[in-house]
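3.2 Worked example (two chains)
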Amino acid sequence: MDNQSLTIYIDGEAYQVDSNDNLLAGVLSNKLNLPYFCWHPAMGSVGACRQCAVTQYQDEHDEKGRIVMACTTPVTEGMRISMKDHSSREFREQVIEAMMTNHPHDCPVCAEGGECHLQDMTVMTGHTSRHYEGLKRTFTNQDLGQFVGHEMNRCITCYRCVRFYKDYAGGEDLGVFGSKNQVYFGRQEDGQLESEFSGNLVEVCPTGVFTNKHFSAHYTRKWDLQSAPSICANCSVGCNISVGERYGSVRRVMNRYHHELNGYFICDHGRFGLTYVNSSKRLSSTKGINHSSPMGLKKQDVIRALLPYRKKQFLAIGSGRASIESNQLLKEVVGAGNFSTGFSTAQLPFAKKHAEYLSRHQPVSLAEIEQADFILIIDEDITQSASRVALSVRQALRNKGIARAESMGIPSWQDSAVRTIAAEQKSPLYIFTSVATKLDSVATARYLQSPEKTKLAIEQLIEVLTNKARNKEVTSDIFQIADAINQAKNPLIISGWSHQHYGLFSSSIRLIDAVKTCHTNSRSLLTAPEANTVGQLYLTQENTKAVEQIITQVINDQDIAGLIVLEHELSSLSDRQIECLKGANKLCIAIEHSDSKFTQAANMVLPATPVTESQGHFANYQGRVQPFFAVTPAVLPIQNAWQWLCLVANGLEKLTDEITFINSFSALHQWFKEHIPHWPITLKMNDLSIAREPHRASGRTAKMANQSVHEAKTTQSEEAFHFSMEGGAIDSGDKMPFVWAPSWNSNQAITFYQQRPNGPLIKRQSATFLPFTEQPVNQHQTEENGKQAIANNTEISLAVSIPWLRRAWLTRQQAEFNMLVQPNVLYASQNYADQHQLATKQWVKVSLSQSIDSTRVDVFAQLMIDADLPDDHLFLQADELHENHWQLVNVILADEQALEQWQLQVEQRLTLAKLEQENTLKRLKEKDQTIPIRLVSGGLEDV
């Protein structure tokens, strides 16, 4: 439907509303206060709570009117309503009072206290006294796993939770049970919530039924949190988040609204995947540098340690975990020819091909995905590698049903009616995959097969679309997909790196090119492995070396004095390669924030800040450049990676003398602007620094009272945000550290910073995208991507299914994720099992290798039969495997003794993870009592 502006009258005043909105959305668009519970801007209306009652009048002469629910009432030109009349005000107050008959009086001990939507609405309706004197209904709570707490007695039966979890996110293990006054929202039995979006229940629920377990365990009120806008660093989507800390430890992550990307929802990887910053594995001291003063590390100590290496040649490895600025500075320090962007030999061809793709195509945003009417996914399990993309795909599948409802006069916001009319109708989704995915059940067709067979199918599809196909060589399925593409108005193609098959990746891009040629509205998306992988693509050149090449050169070339590694765990290296590197007697400098096998091998370690304590930019899968800010100042000698690099450059006498005087992030950007042609990032500063803390923050003068009666000075910073409650009010743009509006303490306050609910922010800044230029790709890269075939089993292909909580190296360090042990399962066809004399649920030993020369890895797994699998393809889900480029050696029945030993090791890892979680929580609570004071957010010797 076309958007039109209509005039309605609210309590005698004229207001403009969008014709496609319901009355509640129209009221909120004009920043008026009208209470509601069940309605959500992204999920539409069901009219379950009856809280948004208003009085509607037939015309200006009608003085009586009738009560209607604003969320289920369409707006019409000249509509007249009242929110202040006695009838609707009394109605709304009675609805609240009815809810309160069973709601417990536990606000002081509820984790939602102070940011509770129910509290806000209760005050807004004027409900101040309760008349009900009977017994309250009580429920038994459930254990919903590691992430989400459950307190059913607080439920007001708004149905938001189940509507989000099942209808919106496609979850299957949370439901609604009972009737009347005994309605229960939960699982059929206790257990970990299975959806990748379970954490959104915490924000979706208007009360305290669902709470953040991590936050509750180490709790502080919202008004005492220091917050900063940040970017999720766990995948390439680049979701906007708000990080909250207290006493120097990160407490929680909340969704930060971004209309083009994550909207109102983030995945659990982003919400719960930051606890590694509180881990005991954090690096807090230097290694390989002698201190000249008992007061701490000095700049001259670092320069003195580097004195023997002045003006000598160093090689360097960057990382997709590090910021654009840190990687760029490292490249400048060692020189472009000595710099690796951090891609392994297996990844580098993908990187160069991906950069070539970005020079011709602008990837689709998540908001644009939801407008697609045809989707083709090519061997990328986006439910695990880019979960937020999968959530948008689920919304796109509703477009066919929404169109049918609109043809019958039903607006899209009438959620229940639209879903009833749509029934099982969905927009076409075709999936080529080598592993089973959670989107398979909603796909029009799924083709479970090896990447090599998918490559052949994609090439056939290209031939059909370009009218070069010979009919006898093309299957009917390919013609069906081609017809669906031709009939679509907004077709979308999605792929990525996970399958690790260069030939398929290249064919996928060729298909994107072909569809774009014959369909100008077509869009595409390629996921990438890490948060700043696309930023690294921007720095990748034709002569850029792989990590293994850099390591080999450092070991063998006598002219190379050493190696600098920036926030890279070097997981692609074998233990033998690490030992050879140690034996080369070269200076190995690790700039890293968490302990890794390389920091243990390095002879100089410089502790860097993680994303929560630093400022910089990431480029997401689109090339969209997004800033992140420190939520708390680092404790010296921990510094930003770029600060360490400035010191290293000074000590090695690299670059100009001006690098010595860079003492702030803005000064660093000024140096880039002056020394790097076409530097793509413009640093956007606020006119007035914004306070990181709310104006109601308590304990401002008493945080350090247990150490000193003298008030501590707040940390001083020249950047965009103050480390205190002093500074400008939160901006209504895309860099809000937290959300608050008068009368709205919950996250629902975001409505007052939007142009309209579920619309763009009022003060959003224009997006910046990295400018990619097409460069030639080395055609000598083989389609097998450097893999060597295993001689005795080339006829069987194997794919590894990697769950989201095991994909990122950083989150694999988290105890909470390590406690979520998933069973190892090998999926095969019935014929394969029969041929190898194996039966369902038998334990087998799967032997794997990455090349003929590499060490073999044995994995124990239960065999399960998948009827859709071809006989020549297997897929494996194994907790120990974090990469997909494995080749199958053999599968045999597991030895009972070896199996028992492996199961014992799994139990021991689980026990250690539980112990680590307990010890971390204990350490953080003790640390709360001895907070280090940081006066200036600068570098070494800044006090």
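3.2.1 Second chain
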Amino acid sequence: MDSSLVSPFPSSPSSPSRALPPTAPLLPETSRAAAAAAGSRQRDVAAEAVEWQEQQQQEDDEGCARVVVADSGAERSGARSAPRPWSRAELPTLSPRCRIPGAGHSGSEPGQRPGSPRDPAPEPAPSHLEPAACPHHPRAVEAWLDDNPDFARSYFVRKATREMINVWFEERVRPVVSVDRTSSSRGVGGGALGHAGATGAGGAVDGCRQSPPRKISASEFDRPLRPLLMEDPSDGSLTFVLGTEAAAPRSWSSPRPHAEASDVPGRAASGCVMAMATSVSAHGVGSSRSVSGERERFLELVKDIACRLDVVTLCHRILLHVNQVLTADRCSLFIVREDSSQERCLVSTLFDVSLGSTPEQARTSWLRLAWGKGIVGYVAATGNGVNIPNAYQDPRFNVEVDLMTGYKTQSVLCLPIKDNKGEIVGVAQAINKKGNNEGKFTEKDEREFGAYLAFCGIVLHNAQLYEDSLLENRRNQVLLELASLVCEEQSSLEELVGRIIDIILSFMPCQRCAVFIADKDSPNIFSRVFHKSLEVPGVAENTSQSESQSHPVSFIYAEFVMKMLTLLNIPDVHCDNRFNLPVEERGNYRTKSLLCAPIQNRKKNEVIGVCQLVNKLEEGAGEVRPFNRNDEQFVEAFAIFCGMAIRNTRMYEAVARAVAKQTVTLEVLSYHAIAHEDECAKLQTTSVPSAQSLNLLDFTFSDFGMAEELTAVGSLRMLLDLSLLQTFSIPNEVACRWILSVRKNYRRNIAYHNWRHAFNTGQCMFTVLVTGQAQNVLTPLEMLCLIIAALSHDLDHRGFNNSYIKNRSDHPLATLYGHSMLEHHHFDQCLMLLNSPGNEMLSSLSVQEYRSAVGMIEHAILSTDLATYCKNRGEFFSLVKDGTFNLEDQHHRKLLRAMMMTACDVSAITKPWPVQQKIAELVASEFFDQGDRERQELHVEPTDMMNREKRDKIPTIQVGFIDGICLPLYEALSCVFPACAPLLSGCQSNRQNWEKLTTRCDGQQDPGAELNDDGLK
């Protein structure tokens, strides 16, 4: 054969030559003649393709047949490799030499999809080869299939797999950004439906983009959401933490997992499309084009609804499409809902939709049908569709619907809408067939209606899942808003409850929301009532009152819930026979639906109020609807947050009242704590003796035998001799009043820690400063703070130590302070006096000096706690012993002031022996009183120091106190201030005397065994 092209179709003895596809005219003339001869046998083109597919499957090891193009046109001779037949997996694949740039199949092996990992590197193709030069090039094959649609359709019906159909369908129904509006304009037809905004594929996609999901309101909470609360089996309380099983809603409307939901359209689509393909095959090739048009129209309808997530808009589009497909007069769609009694019912989301109507027009009225009642109820209960030629002859038809609407129903076609699990999610109803068939729906209508509703069930269920997620999100936002309100608003109960009512009304529109506040101390069951009324939609009136006459019906139910501690949901209060309700006379206001829940204090398990919602409103329509189970769940959760908020606010108000009372009390105490004016005037006019005449400069000073008035005069002399009044411009009147006020705030019934002890501590500090020459290294501000701290360090001492307060956990001082309770209290009292009118000793200081002075006074007073002294003394002793103590170092100075305070506080141990004995008796008397209280109140055995029955151990205790506390301190202080050596010698002398007394006591113990915070001072 004189040809430059070798045919890829095999020849064998058992079969005649195969005819080439319609691209044969591109072959040489001899090949075209052979093709024409073969075509004369009138072999069907479809049979030719089938025979091509049934060729040998095994690939030849030597490779594919090559196409050789001769530049000179001469015939090539010689042996050629036997051509290999095509396999199914290889169709259509280029031969190795027929690779066209940009064809997308270059480099593919036989039977391999382009772009697979096994693809070799692309081989450059001759630039002069075009797709037409290769009869089995993909473009050539695709062109041939376009010219032979009957074969392509027949092959698709017979050979297409489910996966191919799924992929095809998903690509077709997926919304696209740009749509060719000229490609198909017959999808949904024109006419009245065109006014609804759907004109082919382009209109469908535009509708998806231009109709965003509408705002979700709580009036749509008719389908059950996930329960917010459940009862904890351990204690019976309500909790937000749910188990997996408890959190699952009812199976008939339970949301499926996302993975399963995404797979549903493909599975459902495959079944419907296969059914359509079977219908095409049954009609035959002759009618295939008309059926193809119906299929395309059907797919356009599916595309129009597939991208919609708003339930109302989706239902409206579905009904418009049903009108178009069935040529029905009117259509309705009923959604499965659950009422407040958790019984299923059917609600007409859109009723009597006709061509040209809008969703707003179709929503003006709605019907609620019982489950299993009427034609729609029967279809929902049984899952079987019905086709009724004459509705009035069917006993299931409810004539009242026609009477209510004024419409005459003749024929009815009603089918269920199911989701992927076969659960019924709605019922679609077409009424009054228009056109031929005597106004009756045909079997074809049933098939088309059922096929379309199969898609609608999936899309509707997904839209409901989407709206459920929006509702869940909105509900959680409201609860989070309430939670934040609990943390933020605590100052006023009126403002708190007002904001709570605003939040709940924004989420759940109703005519009235009220919060009743209970108070067990009030003569009435409710002490206060806060409510907001929506008498006129859109107008809110805020009022608060406590009288039950304004809303007697609401008050009756609130009182009932208060006593029974149970949630109450009444669809119509006037149908409730439990109460003899009075007649309401408030204009157009009439209580109908009511939801009431108790507000409890979960910690104390007591009712603190009642939350009540009256007359739930249908958004847009303004009609009163009953509350449902979702409303109950929300109100239960709301009541918990409301309870916490009210409880916290009432506690805050109680604390605010307590603070106000405390302020008044402090004012009263401050008045009585401040010295009287006549005492101040007397001290101002008194002649102040010198420090020498009062013996204030001697370390052996004793206040025994000194009159009470002289102690105040002596304190004034200390301030004068240190030049503190002149340095800080302190008026003499202020100094006198402050000294007398400090003396007045020491308790006189305390044996030792009284004003006399404070005066002795102040005198010792004065002696250390003057006689001990400490004033040479300390600043005037430091000396002022040390004198103030010494005189105030035991203000309002109660006669017991910190150990007693620690054992009394309920003591107020233990609640106020964590450590050094008495010392903190002494400082607070000192600061209170310094800030009292007429006692401002620090008023002339600058802000920085004042802060520094207050800090030094606080540190000095807290240093008198022997527990604090024991923590700090090690560092001070090491610095002194090593000779590294530096007065220029502020930390060292701070340590020095602390040691000076302790040395002056326990200076009684350095006094002459007769004075020391008397002071020891006073200390022992106070300690024994504390021991008696511990035995009586705390029921514990006191330590030996506090035990009156072990009085004989006082000498041993004193020796231990001197060795453990006093001697190391005075030794170190004498090293810093050598002039303070009399303190050390006096302490050593008293130790010898106490040690002599220990020989008289039986059972001598370890000297340090009986030490506590105070010791015997």
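3.3 Remarks
The radius of gyration is 51 Å.
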